[in-house]
Amino acid sequence: MGRPEQIAVYWDFENIHASLCTLHYGPYWYRDKMNRHSRQPQLMDINSIMEFINSVGDININKAYGNWSFFFGYSFDLQNHAVDLVQMFPRGSHGKNGADIRMAIDAIEDITLNPHISTVVVIGGDSDYIALAQKVRQRGKRIIGIGVKETSNQYWMKSCNQFKYYSSLLVKSSSISSLEKEGYEAGDLEDAKKLLIKAIKRICSETGEASVLKASIKPMLMRLDPSFDESNYGFSNFTSFLESCQDVVSIHVGEHDHRLSLLNTENGDASVPEPKVLHPYELILQKQHVQLPDPAMLTAGIKETFALFVEHGEIAGYPRFREKLGDRLADIGIEAGTRDLNNVQQVLFRTFCFQLNRERHTLSLSPEVVSADMLWVRVVSYLVKRITDNLDDIPDYKAMSRLLFGDEEKSDQLKDIHDNELWKRPQR
Question: Which of its termini does the chain have fewer beta carbons within 10 Å around, N or C?
């Protein structure tokens, strides 16, 4: 065996903690100075993160940056893993602590003074670390990012050699068996299958063979998408993931390892049904892991979700929510499949509409949502922003309306949402 990876770890602690607060309490909770400048709740599973990093190699440097007068509840777990706690005092009227700048300077200095460091791990989701990733890779080092799926910047993720979602580390950790009770979403397996097809085609084109070694697939998947991990789709290991994809691949025993081929390639037909052509706006959303429900279901799903919580107040978790929402939609003549119900839930989850009671394991709507119309604006504002933030030209609101609702009737409303930047306003 070769020498294990020599690792330097840097935690932007407030960044990842704030992301978890956003998921648990809503987008405005951590922005409130009364909440931000007080003792913080312990939401992060430090052990799951460290379990992953220790599996990568030997940790030489481990620094966490934050205002520890607020985060001292985490100090025992961090010190138990020999993390160096770097105190960062807030500066300026907005309370910025400058951890990103300090971390970047320290990381470059550390890998310069310690050339044996081969891998840098950055825990945080900001785009501020793109330049750091570039500098690390220029020096021939690997960089691994860890962040919250729902809030991490997609360009930062692509800058890394490997990017791990915090929720995927929970899947593989022995300490947490179920993500449902924490509210994390699994990715869409259909997207993973498309990536798998692309990876196998790429390897086949390089080798000139019709089948590929199982061991060569995951490295190619991670080259195509640094954030790929089978845990993102609810699988505890790569073999289980591949077995679930046997509608698009064939798995057979090779001389030393299993080999995989795309279906029908053994008969000389290398054709695989191409996925439907997606509108560019839908591609933008899919690249950000946003899956849309059927257009006829988005507005109805939002309306019935609000009515559901008005009726019940709290619901016993996400599976029960999907079940009850399916029943309500059926009552008004809309038959919703499992995938559409999952997509309605995921869109609502990503817009921080839910509030989770961790003690009772129940689900309710955020208290900021006081009407079905407000919930609709909140969801649609999120989707419009996701699309328009990634456009170089003028938005086509008619096309956007067709994508979201199946017709052009709401194009003027979408334009008003974008022009007035409604997503920037607290929904109170």
Answer: N
d(CA 134, CA 140) in angstroms, rounded, equals: 10
Surface-to-core class of residue 169, CB atoms within 10 Å of its CB (0-12 exposed, 13-18 middle, 19+ buried):
buried
Alpha carbons 261 and 259: distance in angstroms, whole number: 7
Fold of 280-424: Four Helix Bundle (Hemerythrin (Met), subunit A) (1.20.120)
Determine the Cα–Cα distance for residues 144 and 9; give it in Å rounded to an integer: 9
Task: Say how far apart CA 168 and CA 145 lie, in whole Å.
Answer: 13
Q: Which sequence spans correspond to the domains of the chain?
A: 5-179, 189-267, 280-424
Enumerate residues 6+ apart whose C-beta is below 8 A from 377.
417, 422, 427
CA atoms within 13 A on the CB side of 406: 8
Residue 94 pLDDT grade (very low, low, confident, very high; cuts 50, 70, 90):
low
- Supply the DSSP symbol for 227: T
Contacts of residue 407, defined as CB under 8 A and 6 or more positions apart, other chains included, come to 401
Q: In 3-state terms, what secondary structure has residue 326?
A: helix
- 310 residue type, one letter: V
Q: What are phi and psi of 220, to 5 degrees?
A: -70, -40
Number of separate helices (H) and strands (E) present in the chain: 18, 11
Query: Taking a C-beta distance cutoff of 8 angstroms, is the pair 211, 261 a contact?
Result: yes
Torsions phi, psi for 276 (to 5 deg): -60, 150
CA distances from 196 to 26, 132, 241, 253 (A): 34, 30, 10, 19
The tokens for 223 are 């080259």
Structure tokens at 227: 């954030």
- pLDDT, tens digit (0-9, with 9 covering 90-100), for 31-82: 788 888 888 988 898 988 998 999 899 999 999 999 998 998 898 899 889 9
What is the amino acid identity at position 2? Answer: G
pTM: 0.63
Res 363: pLDDT:
84
DSSP 58-84: EEEEEEEEE-TTTSGGGHHHHHHTT-E
Q: What is d(CA 81, CA 36) in angstroms, rounded to the nearest whole number?
A: 26
The set of long-range contacts for 404-408, using a CB threshold of 8 Å and a minimum separation of 24, is 404/292, 404/295, 404/298, 404/380, 405/295, 405/298, 405/299, 406/295, 406/296
Report the CATH number of the 189-267 domain: 3.30.420.610
Q: Does domain 5-179 have CATH number 3.40.50.1010?
A: yes
pLDDT (tens digit per residue) in 317-349: 888 888 999 999 999 998 888 878 888 888 888
Please name every residue paired with 121 in a beta bridge, in sequence order, or none if there are none. Answer: 9, 144
